[in-house]
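C-alpha cells please, single chain.
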Amino acid sequence: MADADLDVVIRQLARQQQKSLMAAAKKRRDRYGSLAAKAKDKPARDRYRQIAKDTMEHATTAVRRLQISADNAADSYARSMRQAVAAADAAAAATKEAAKKKTAKKKPAEG
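Here you go.
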C-alpha cells in the first residue's frame, strides 16, 4: 500500500464508504418495511413504504455524489502529480543545460 498512488487509495476509500452507506440505508429501509408490515391502517402503511422508498433514493443520490467527489479528488491529485513531475524534469533539464554551458565557457579560457 505504501507504493500505491494516492489517487487509487482515494478511490478505494470512497468505495468502502459507499458500501457502508448503502448497507446502512438498506438496514433502515428494511426497518421501515417491517414497520409498514405491522401498521394497522392503510395510511400508516403507505407512509412507511414511502419513507423506505425515499430512504433508498436519498442514499443512492448520496453515494453518487460521494463517487463524483472521490473521482474529482483522485483525478485532481493525479493531474497535480503529473504536473509536478513534469516541472521537476524541466528544472533538471534546465540545470543540466546550464552546467553544460558553464563548462563550455571555461574550456576556451584555459586553452
